Amino acid sequence: MKKLGIAFGIMLFVFGGFTTHAQTADEIINTYITNIGGADKFRSLTGTKMEMNVNYQGMEIPVELVQLKGGKMYLKINFQGQEITQMAFDGTTAWSTNFMTMKAEKMESEMVENIKQEAGDYPDPLIDYKSKGYTAEYLGKETKEGTECYKIKLTKKPQMVDGQKVDNIVFYYFDTENNVPILTEAEIKSGPMKGQMSTTTMSDYQEVEGMYFPFSMNQGGQPMKIKKVTLNPTVDPSAFTFKE
Amino acid sequence: MKNILKLFLTVGLISYLPSQAQEEIILKGKELFGDLSARQIGPAIMSGRISDIANHPTNNKIIYIGAAGGGVWKSSDGGASFSPIFDKHIQSIGCVTVDPNNPDNTIWVGTGEPWTRNSVSIGDGIYKSTDGGLNWNNMGLPKSDRITSIIVDPRNSDVVWAGVLGALWGDSEDRGIYKTTDGGKTWNKTFYVDQTTGCADLVIDPSNPDIMYASFWEFRRTAWSFNSGGNNSALYKTIDGGKTWNKIHNGFPKGQLGRIAIGVAPSNSQILYAVLETEQDKDKGLYRSDDSGATWKHLNSDFELVVRPFYFSRITIDPRNPDILYKGGLRGSISRDGGKTFKPLGNMHADIHDITVDLHDSNRIYVATDGGLYRSWDSGNTLDIVKNLPLSQYYHLSLDNEEPYNIYGGLQDNGSWYGPSKSDGGIEARDWHSVGYGDGFRVLKHPTKKIIYSEMQGAENIWRYNLETKELKTIQPLAVKGDPKLRFNWNTPIVTGIHNPDRIYAGSQFVHVSDDMGQTWRKISGDLTTNDPTKTNTEKSGGLSVDNSGAENHCTIFTIAESPLNKEIIWAGTDDGNVQITKDGGKTWSNVTANLKGLPKNTWCYHIEASVFNEGTAYAVFDGHSKNDYATYVYKTSDFGKTWTSIATADIDGFARNIQEDYKNPNLLFLGTEKGLYITVDGGKNWSKFENNMPAVAIHYLDLHSKTNDLVMATHGRGIIILDDVSPLRQITPEILKKDVHFFEMKPFAIEEQSSFGGTASELEFVGPNPNTAAQIVYYLKKRHTFGKMEMEIQDLNGHKIASLIPGKQKGINIVTWNFNTKNPKIATAKTLSYGGFTSPRVPEGTYKVVLTKGNDTYTQEFKVVNDPKSVISAAERKKQAETTKMLFDKNEELAYMVYELDEMIALNKKIMEKDAKSAKSNGKIDSEFNSLKNTMVVTTGDMYVGAAEPQLREKLSAIYATVASQFDAPSPSQIANIENIMDQFNTAKSGFSDLKSKYKNKLVGQATKLQIPFALKSFEEYLKE
User: Fold this and answer.
1) Smallest CA–CA distance from B812 into chain A, residue
2) To 10 degrees, the CA torsion angle through A179, A180, A183, A184?
3) CB–CB of A80 and B947 under 8 A?
4) Which pLDDT tens digit goes with each residue over A155-173?
């Protein structure tokens, strides 16, 4: 085990000498951003399109997620040749499709405000997090996914839930070896799971034009596989807009 | 980044090389257990003991409770439902305190229950959360054992006082009042009485934080006695923020005092109430002071006020009216006249430990009982239990061989129950059956008959209950001529025979045996205990209040184990530390206690596990906590007890009560401790704590189901917890842990034929999850996969893909489930969705393989899928079902392609008409012909609910497909007739389509070419692939 430890130490040394001094949140976050391609590349993105498969009990459901700088986004599912916008935001209005009528319905204003508030999160909440008014704190090491991780607490702006202002905190776990997040946790704020933690895992980081994205995610037990990432996509602006 | 990746590979290689030389790779829990996760099945129907309630001071939607053995739970909906927030830490809770200065975020928890009954657990310090309970830090006081109260200075959150009652079973200098001025980083003991007397309550004057009141209590428990009271019990007051404390006894009787409850009226802090335990019965009960404690007046000695002070000692005063007060007790009581008279609270579970009143509405109260949390909207007249608190405190459990198997067990003050390990829609309150009163302990199913044995405390009754005839008979061994008084433990051992199913053993100081299900008993041993007369006089137990409940019966047999290999070999362990063995069915016994090196004398033998591998092998677990010894004692013998080896290591934190041996791998052992589950895969050289969905809860008993390989745990505070199918753990060896990827061998996966019905619980009721019935692909990864592709497929043996799965990537054990489904059919596009399109055909039974690709490496493993063994459906029927499903699947796809072609031609025709105005008339006719055909093929209007259009061919075809694909047997004659009918429609549509196509396709293509409109149809194969 000792020798293994030494090898580990060498590896850590190569990647910035983590073992030599106490970590700070900024060091971890900056190393991460450097590892995935550097802040400049991400800042210059105008948008991303992710084509993915959501795997539901072995059934693969094609999903397309488009996010643009500034917060516009849509998530489309393809069922039986029909494209259904499960959720979209055009900068002012957020909406979804009612599955009974297959018609667009506006989302509740509280939710819309929360989405607006995080419109600047694209492409990554951690990039320039301070200028977004967020704070990050290093909480120490913790084992997640069987792996030693740095735990970072990212405090975003409080959100409104059921008429009350609530904290908006995401815990990031950065694998100490690769210094990329492999898991995040956030408290569920409403519904029957309220008060419990929602967990997302990230893996299969792959390069797209010099930037790294996790191509596999599991959100609260729902696995997703990204097939293709298109950077700066051309998108029909009407795809984001609510249609009466 | 590319370079970095290369470096990863290189360094990865370096790190691999030295590991070759390693003898063994030791992995501890979080790196090993991965996706293996416990299943908490409750029940919550009887819930369990709650020691403290804390309401948020400004938001009445937020409530915290601390359970006696089930941790801390938080409600964010005004007490409608609760979630656990303290699972990583010890589950015995003394108090929860919300910081009044920062009530949304800062919460303090003092561990160790203050209600000191015989079965009470221990605490390990004080905890703090600064994020509303998401994360907790232990802030010290590790030897406090039980913290009764925490006060945060309303002027400064960094200033906190903690009242430490301390050790129950021994002297302790860690008792008293502690203060921190740096938010808990450091603590000073600011007031101390002596090593026998601890702080039972600490309250603050709501109008002047420099004034506090503290009650101190002299108390002690042993395994055989309890004492409440002494000359050091007293009520103190400080007026200088805790610097000096003075007794305030003016009006109290002289002599010894016991436990004292104290309360300050929030609306008038001059008014105090205290409940005293005194030497004379006439002096006991409620005292009131109207001058901040300067003088006291005795008001009342009602039963509810004086009953069992060690167990009930909480006064709650209405926040608005100082004359309305509640007192915890057997039923709990309320006074509306300042304590002169009381009436009991309404119907709920007995034994009331705490009561709180809502912030805004005095009619709304919350009550903590031995059987859960109750809410009332009329100040306690009518009460409603919170139904999602599975805090049940099991003492023991046993399993049967039904499918699904049932779990039998008894609980603290909540009788005996059995319920299933699996139920339609989840395991709900309705699934649990009551089979005993009082405190329940061991409940056993007769190995072959529909008969259940259960018992209540001290074998006051052992019942034999016939589930079929409903015959209920009391069968405990009774004293016969010449017998001394039979001493039965509070938790009396009863065991059914392995070799003779009608046999039942029971232990007093003797081993009793019945071979006729309890009709006649004979003793097969002498007194196997130390029979120490100083430990067998329980009549005087209790101290100032006699408490002879039987809970302190001592010098009794506590565990009996029959060897599964030889019926003549029986082990018995006693609560006063003896281990005895007979090898001749009870004719002669050997006391092998002296051979247990390193075990302190008289340490309670909690469990003996007779090995399935070897007659001479057994495990014994000893629990010294009732002698104030919290060390772990686990021993193994291989020679009938002549020599013993300790297999407890420093990995284990706290005392243990039970051990379970695996049936296949002698090195795989499970240990139940006061702080959770530990597992060893190397015979006890290394132990790992198991924490996946497994709270750090006291485990009183463990059993391993021989068919399912499920480890079932009786926890004392979180109900029954199951670790489903532990068989992967059997296979772990150092060699496997060295491999990059290792698939575990799994037994064949059965495609279970199960109901999709069930589920009657509201969202506020606890429902225990069912085991996963899908195929579970279990593999070990040496390293977490983070960069690059890693994918998984199920294939048939010829390598044809059946399903894509998304694999887990964590280091350690990963489990990926597959529900035996193949690909779902491609369904014709229409106005609405067809549910049939979400139905996939199942694979037939047979051998399949899982293929995992990770970077350039491929790993495969074959596995078997079998039909449900309990199914009566024949192979021929299954074949017919599969063929029909396939036929209908194909027809759905064929129709989908026709509709695609038709849609493409309709679109093309539209473009032609748009570009060439002259074509409008003739092509308009084509359009209407196309559309009238399409209208028979799919719905083109309507919605997915009550606005749905009349179903057309697609809807009918997909509906019958979904029905047949979902069933297991052959299509019925009725279904076949329906299929024929739909096939007629299909053929009509097909020929209609074919006619139109031959009539118009070439024409349209010709027009399009002239107009330069591109047109290309995908082939059927291309269409299916897209």
Assistant:
1) A146
2) 100
3) no
4) 999 999 988 888 999 999 9
